[in-house]
Every structure is written in C-alpha cells, then in structure tokens.
Amino acid sequence: MRALTVDSLNPAVRNVQYAVRGELAIKAEEYRVKLKEKGQDSGLPFDRIISSNIGNPQQKGLDQPPLTFNRQVAALMEWPDLAQLAPDAFPKDVIARANELHEEIGSIGAYSHSQGVPFIRQNVAKFIQERDGHPSKPDNIFLTGGASAGVSLLISMLISEPHKSGILIPIPQYPLYTATLAQFSGVAIPYHLDEPHDWSTSIGEIKAALKKAKEDGIDPKALVIINPGNPTGALLREETQREVVDLCTEHGLVLLADEVYQSNLHRAAEFPFTSFKKVVCDLGSPAPLISFHSISKGVTGECGRRGGYFECHNISEDVRAMMYKMVSVGLCPPLQGQIGMDCLVRPPKDGDESYALWKQETTRIHKALAERTKLMADRLNKLPGVSCVDSPGALYLYPKITLPEKAVTAARTAGKEPDAFYALALLDATGICVVPGSGFGQKEGEYHYRLTCLCPGVDEYVGKLEKFHHEFLARYK
C-alpha cells in the first residue's frame, strides 16, 4: 500500500508559509499547555503567554469585550424564544433588529443565498453609499467568511497561468497574500514601502516592480494595497490613492483594496481614511476594483464569527457570474458572520435604546488602542537600536531592530533568520509571542517584528520587552 507522505502532497501546499501562526505561535501554545498543566512547577520564567502575534482582540489574555448590541442581536438570532423568556433583558431596538433579520433569514441553521443574505447585502450597499457618497449595488456585494476568504477567492481566480501570473504586494505585507499565492502557484511581485517616510506607498517603487516583473516574463494581474497597513498601520494620502488608481488603469491591473482596518484610526483628524471606492468614483476611473472589509477588526473584533464582504466595482457581469459560481461551491458564508456584518454596517443610531452603551463601548476601545499605540511607540523608540513608526492606524506596531553581529552569527548558526532568533529568545524569556519581520518581508540586512497594541497591562508588557532587549544586547555585545 502506498503511504501518504508530505512528499506525495501537492507541491503548492508544501510551499505555503504563514508566519502569523508559524513556529513561534506553535511554541507559544506548547508553553501555554505546559503552564496550564504544571502551573508554578512548569520551570518557565513567566506565568502566562502574551499573544502579541495576531490581531485577535477577544482572545483570552487580550480580552477586548464584545459589543453588547452585536451579541444581543446574535443571541436572539440563535434562540428567538429568549425575547419571551427574558422580556426585560433586551433593549427594544435589539428585539426589533432580531425580528427584522429573522423575517428575512428564518433559522440561522439553514443555508443562505451563496452570495449572502440579500437583505444584509442591501444594508452593506447602503453603508458603502453613505460612507463614500457614490452608489453601491447589492448585486456587487459578496458576503464572505471573513475578508481572508474573499482574498483567497480573488487570487485563485486571477492566477490564469501558474508560475507566470503575478500580483503586486506591499513589503512588508500580511502573510495571507504570499501564502495564498503559493497555494495557487501565483507569483508575488514585491514592492517596498518607504519606512523612513512612515511606511508610505511609493508609486516609483510600484513602477519599478512592474518593470522588473515584465522583464522576468511575469504577467502582472493585480495590485494589492492594504490601507490602513498591516503590519505598518500606515494610511495612504488621497493624492497617492489617485496615483495608484491611475497606475492600475494604465497597466490594466485589478486593484485589490484590503480595507479591514478602516475604523482603526488613532489620529483620524491627521490621518483620515478614504476608501478606494470613493477615489475611483471621484476620478470616474474605469479601473477594476475589489474592496474588502471584515468584522474581525475595528472595534467589533469578532474574529471567530468569520464575517466579511467584498465589493466589485468596474467588474463585468460575466466575471461576477464566475465569482458566484465559485462561492456557490462553498454553499454560503457563516450566518452568524453575516449577522455580525449587518451589525457593523447598521450600528445603533442616536436615539435608539442601545446607542448610549454602544457609543460608550466603542469610544473606550478606540481610546485604549490609541493610548497603547502611542505609549508603546514612545518607549520602543527609546531603546538602543530600535526605531518604530508611531502607527496612525490598524492594531500593530512594526519596530525595526538593529542586532549585534554576534547575534546575527548565532542566528545563522542555529539556522534561523536573525529576527526570528530574537523573537524566539523573547518568547523563551518573557512568554511574549510576536511575529518576526522575516514573515512579512523586509529589505536585505534589516530586521523587524510585529506586535499588537491589543494587550492590556501595557506598562508591564512593555517593561518586559525593554528588560529583554537590554539583556539580549548585553548577551551578544
């Protein structure tokens, strides 16, 4: 009998790498289990794991509370009888919303339309129209199991010729893009963001990457923009966005706009968010655009419910029919994720019974994220050999670290990238799990790591980072 081995699997699967849940996350989970099983007898120099490797706001240890309105609507959709069993437990607007959704959906245990519940797609289209001041059509909206599912679908469809079709991705980038390209045998065409200028997007860099790709025989099909950035938190200026749209039009590129952090704005007056849908419509551009959003980020933080959408603009009806065919294979996105998206695009309004609490909760989360981000950036920038852009958006910081030559040599001897070597040592010493910059992409000879700004007890958390960094430098000086 022929055995199933790794070598017998699809080689594209073997090529997939996903640093956010890679070696460090696996080791952190091993430590977590050891602490749970042995407690003070674990022999570890820390008493808990701090999961700073992933933007998972409600994860145990990060504990961002869910929004009450969203969970109350979800509860009534799970068990409608609750409204009668506990008549004083739910505000009137929550009951009205759940009744409205139940009328449209019925039981959430049934499949929905493969593109998503039509009524919820109508509400998403209204949200987009109110945000941008331009029309949006429900038929152009696809509800998805998180934004990642939409990204994976689009990349799979765009790779028309394996190992020849390429997609431009920012460096540093969210590893979803390189992982998905590897899975579907596409080619990643990297363009570097400008760290000395706060991780800005350089049109010159994109043009240079396009030129090189074509010289190498690669057919560029699409351009990915992550705005606000992950892992950088940078926001594009509208002038740059217009240049990006013009470039896509000139070169026949599909613009893939990853906008899942659009409500995570720490200094909104100075760094506002403008959607690419608005920019494309303002310009009257024919550039094909796919825009992604999610309930996993923002102040909603409902990662486990898997809710997202993408909107098609300047995409032909026959191509959208192909998209529909492909999503139909998966039957439908999760119903609770779709309900979560309805709550995101239709939060309580001023005058609704739930509004005061919703406003209080969302304001508190925004304030905490902004304060943590600034405090962490300020203190990281005071460390020797560390420079960190004070991120104006998203959920992360991405400090650059200058490592001693002895540390680099020790890392190479151990078969590790130097920043992964640093991150592993940080985990072993403190229980803090971060993601090394080598997992996101960086310039040769530079080292970074990404950490979230979601961790409570930020003084203690940053204090551990500071202590470790000084000890690491002393060890390898």
Considering the chains and any ligands shown, give keywords for the structure.
single chain, alpha/beta, 17 helices, 14 strands, globular
Average pLDDT rating: 90
Q: Mind summarizing the main beta sheet?
A: 7 strands, mixed
The neighbouring-strand order within the major sheet is 2-8-7-6-5-3-4
The beta-strand count equals 14
Estimate percent helicity. 40-55%
Counting helices, strands and paired strands, the structural category is: alpha/beta
What sort of overall outline do the alpha carbons produce when their principal axes are compared? globular
Based on CA atoms alone, the radius of gyration comes out at 23 Å
Can you count the helices?
Answer: 17
State which percent range the strand residues make up: 5-15%
Instruction: List the uncertain runs.
Output: none
N/C terminus separation: 56 Å
Helix-strand blueprint:
Blueprint: H1 11-14, H2 23-38, E1 50-51, H3 68-78, H4 82-85, H5 92-105, H6 118-132, E2 141-144, H7 147-158, E3 165-171, H8 176-183, E4 187-192, H9 203-215, E5 219-226, H10 238-251, E6 254-258, H11 276-283, E7 289-294, E8 308-313, H12 317-329, H13 335-345, H14 355-380, E9 386-387, E10 396-397, E11 400-401, H15 405-413, H16 418-430, E12 432-433, E13 435-436, E14 449-452, H17 458-475
Parallel strand pairs: 1-12, 3-4, 3-5, 5-6, 6-7
Antiparallel strand pairs: 2-8, 7-8, 9-11, 10-14, 13-14
Helix pairs in contact: 3-5, 3-13, 6-13, 7-8, 10-11, 15-16, 16-17
